[in-house]
Amino acid sequence: MQNQTQIFGIRAIIEAVNSGETIDKVFLQKGLRGELYTELEQVLRKNSINTSYVPPEKLNRLTKKNHQGAVAQISPIDFYDLETLVLNVIESGKTPLFLLLDQLSDVRNFGAIIRTAECTGVDGIIIQKKGGAPVNGDTIKTSAGAVFKIPICKVDHIKDAVFYMQASGIKVIAATEKTDNLLYSVSFKQPCAIIMGSEGRGINPSTLKVVDEKAKLPLLGDIESLNVSVACGAFLYEAVRQRQ
């Protein structure tokens, strides 16, 4: 009951989750009731799987099969464990460079950022389990296949990753307009992690409070912000420039 990117049907999704399948997101039909449906909701909550409640028309667009009100998107990649990845990078002897994405919602921005991260030697990308863009076909296409070449980790909250980076001796730098610091005044030569915020609201305010440094790009025109993937590229290439 599965193609390369989907599982459909309530029982099939329960079994897939319980067997350890890497599921990126589940779409559930609004207003459904029943014992099996309730069991599915419990399994999804227990495993912290990103869930959206949608009208039946959305599910019918996702698949022509008998979905029973539930369609799961399977991730084409396996996610890395954050602690293991950070430890491996530190032990390799190189100067770590990580990228934290705080709930980006657009898969094309996500894919473009993954591509740039791979080109700039980023050691790993950390995303939140819920609220962000999925790793799907559009992500793969926009990343030009880079999604298979760079480690990606999922955490419960981006703030958890911030604290772990700091405890590991890695400076956390937030890309935000809520500062007077320009990007070019910040040092990227030591171990560091850059946080990029979501398209709409930027970095979560509670996360901004715990970062080590904040930096912004100079904007010389009338528009007050850059596309997040473009801004991310500017930050990563400044890190590359300083480390050359």
Please give a structural write-up.
This protein is α/β, with parallel strands linked by helices. The protein folds into two domains: 6-74, Ribosomal protein L30/S12 (60s Ribosomal Protein L30, Chain: A, 2-Layer Sandwich), CATH 3.30.1330; 82-243, 3-Layer(aba) Sandwich (Alpha/beta knot), CATH 3.40.1280.10. It is built from nine helices and ten strands. The chain has helices at 10-18, 35-46, 56-62, 82-91, 107-119, 137-142, 158-167, 205-208, 228-243, and strands spanning 6-8, 23-29, 51-54, 70-74, 97-101, 124-128, 152-155, 171-175, 192-196, 213-215. The strands form two sheets. It has a six-stranded parallel beta sheet with strand order 7-6-5-9-8-10, with helices on both faces. It has a four-stranded mixed beta sheet with strand order 1-4-2-3. The longest helix has 16 residues, at 228-243. One of its GO terms (cellular component) is cytosol.
